[in-house]
């Protein structure tokens, strides 16, 4: 027997349970384009259930529409809408359903996020063999094919009756009898399959319904927690939430931060390293060259004119001073920064080999993201490279691209880029030449001197004498430095000789907290 799933792509849309209009359909279509997780869930579901996209549209409409209408059951489509009608009913049965809708109505992003979590729950259960075995899943496709077949047969039967009523009866009797026989057989088969489907859905554990209702009730708090997690992560790492990012993508990203223990640990570790770096650099805090070019009004106490500051000594003028301070109406020097492009890009190579798994990976990436914060303060380009032993595993993350023109503020780092960098870990072997060649190309492309390369690894790898000679010559020409950082967390006795062949200075992670050994955060 042919697999009924083979004609799935050519089949017309499945019938719906929740009334929808063109605006709702367009909103869902946009969600499928903008949200890869939702699109993946729909594609996966269509391999298990022919009406899964219609179910997805129903759940989305249930959360998105201002006024929802549950359509009456159509006897001709009972089988195709059976699962969707159950799921919609379970979601609506949640005690906090209206509270959830207060968050999602007419909000495409939140409705997309909520619909995806509901669909993920349905998918997990469709994949449970003790609930739906291969035969049960195929029955759903057979029901879909039979209901469509019945529609086509009824249309053919009605057309034959119309043709006969016009006086063209000759030769039609046999055709009508054949159509009636096919209709009768299809209806009998469909009746049997629908009974089997109803028994299966009625026999589902009550836990499926209760967990879906719990999920629905917890969604408002989960959305708030996701947004807060995203905001906290961005604040901790000096990153911004992209204005152009769809709100559903922001919630998905926040969800990953809530559930990914590695990202949470990394955030805490970066916070500790940032404090260390700031303390180490406080005495040598560098500012861009600046000069006074005018007088302006504001509230910056460091740039006040002396005549304004003198008012603090007078009991009456002091009140006037405080009022003008609050209003930002004090006279102050206006300074203009001059970005002379004195520092080149910062390129950080992070070892992603299998031996770095666990705490070593977290420490290495924490050092990298701490250096990113230093690069932002220094107004420098920043690239992070994660490498192992294969060229295909090498990935470059453009985390910071500084604008030209003497701008004083560093641009924010995109939080999605940080999460992508933190998540990527190839787990291969170790090769030094590949990432260093890539770092060299970045510095050559920018054609800026005084760049810095930081090489973070826990292992050793040989480099050929010919390659080393060429690398050191280009290093001298471009006037950049290479700092080596050995990740010796949980491991002692690492030998720095391999890294020292091309690095100007080599330190270790365990020494970054020792007094006098924080060179990398001070000198870079």
Structural class: alpha/beta
Helix-strand string: HHHHHHHHHEHHEHHEEHEEEHHEHEHEH
Assigned CATH superfamily of the largest domain: von Willebrand factor, type A domain
Percentage of residues in strands: 5-15%
Helical fraction equals: 55-70%
Low-confidence stretches: 1-11, 283-288
Overall geometric form: elongated
The CATH architecture of the largest domain would be: 3-Layer(aba) Sandwich
The total tally of domains equals: 4
CATH topological fold name of the largest domain: Rossmann fold
End-to-end Cα distance, whole Å, is 70 Å
Under CATH at level 1, the class of the largest domain stands as Alpha Beta
* Strand segment count: 10
Number of helices: 19
Largest sheet geometry: 6 strands, mixed
How are the elements arranged and paired?
Blueprint: H1 22-34, H2 36-46, H3 52-64, H4 78-92, H5 97-104, H6 108-126, H7 134-165, H8 172-202, H9 206-237, E1 239-240, H10 247-259, H11 261-281, E2 290-298, H12 306-309, H13 315-327, E3 330-337, E4 346-351, H14 359-378, E5 382-387, E6 395-400, E7 413-414, H15 415-423, H16 433-446, E8 452-457, H17 465-478, E9 481-486, H18 497-500, E10 505-508, H19 519-523
């Amino acid at each position: 027997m042919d697999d009924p799933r083979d004609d799935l792509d050519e089949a017309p849309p499945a019938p719906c349970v929740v009334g929808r209009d063109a605006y709702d359909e367009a909103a869902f279509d946009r969600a499928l384009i903008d949200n890869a997780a939702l699109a993946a869930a729909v594609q996966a579901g269509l391999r298990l259930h022919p009406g899964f996209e219609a179910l997805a549209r129903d759940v989305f409409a249930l959360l998105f529409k201002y006024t929802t209408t549950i359509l009456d059951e159509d006897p001709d489509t009972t089988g195709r809408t059976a699962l969707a009608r159950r799921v919609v009913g379970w979601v609506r049965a949640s005690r906090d359903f209206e509270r959830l809708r207060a968050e999602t109505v007419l909000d495409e992003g939140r409705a997309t996020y909520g619909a995806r979590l509901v669909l993920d729950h349905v998918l997990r259960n469709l994949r449970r063999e003790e609930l739906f075995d291969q035969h049960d899943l195929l029955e759903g496709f057979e029901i879909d094919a039979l209901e469509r077949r019945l529609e086509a047969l009824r249309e053919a039967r009605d057309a034959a009756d119309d043709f006969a009523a016009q006086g063209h009866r000759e030769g039609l009797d046999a055709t009508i009898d054949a159509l009636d026989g096919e209709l009768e057989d299809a209806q009998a088969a469909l009746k049997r399959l629908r009974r089997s489907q109803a028994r299966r859905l009625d026999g589902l554990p009550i836990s499926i319904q209760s967990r879906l209702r719990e999920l629905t009730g917890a969604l408002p708090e989960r959305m708030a927690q996701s947004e807060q997690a995203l905001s906290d992560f961005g604040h901790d790492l000096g990153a911004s939430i992209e204005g152009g990012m769809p709100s559903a993508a922001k919630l998905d990203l926040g969800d990953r931060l809530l559930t990914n223990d590695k990202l949470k640990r990394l955030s805490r570790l970066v916070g500790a390293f940032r404090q260390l770096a700031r303390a180490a650099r406080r005495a040598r805090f560098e500012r861009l060259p600046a000069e006074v070019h005018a007088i302006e009004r504001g509230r910056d106490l460091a740039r006040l004119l002396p005549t304004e500051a003198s008012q603090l000594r007078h009991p009456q003028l002091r009140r006037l001073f405080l009022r003008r301070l609050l209003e930002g109406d004090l006279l102050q020097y206006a300074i203009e920064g001059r970005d002379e492009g004195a520092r080149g890009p910062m390129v950080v190579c992070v070892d992603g080999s299998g031996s770095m798994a666990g705490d070593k990976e977290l420490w290495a990436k924490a050092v990298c993201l701490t250096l990113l914060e230093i690069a932002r303060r220094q107004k420098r380009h920043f690239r992070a490279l994660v490498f192992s032993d294969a060229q295909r595993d090498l990935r470059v993350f453009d985390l910071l691209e500084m604008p030209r023109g003497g701008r004083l503020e560093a641009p924010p780092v995109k939080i999605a880029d940080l999460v992508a960098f933190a998540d990527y870990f190839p787990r291969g072997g170790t090769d030094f030449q590949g990432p260093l060649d890539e770092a060299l190309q970045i510095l050559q492309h920018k054609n800026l001197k005084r760049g810095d390369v930081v090489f973070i690894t826990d292992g050793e790898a040989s480099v050929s004498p010919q390659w080393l000679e060429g690398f050191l010559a280009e290093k001298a020409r471009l006037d950049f430095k290479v700092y080596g950082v050995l990740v010796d967390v949980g491991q002692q006795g690492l030998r720095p000789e391999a890294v020292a062949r091309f690095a100007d200075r080599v330190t270790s992670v365990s020494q970054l907290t020792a007094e006098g050994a924080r060179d990398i955060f001070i000198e870079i």
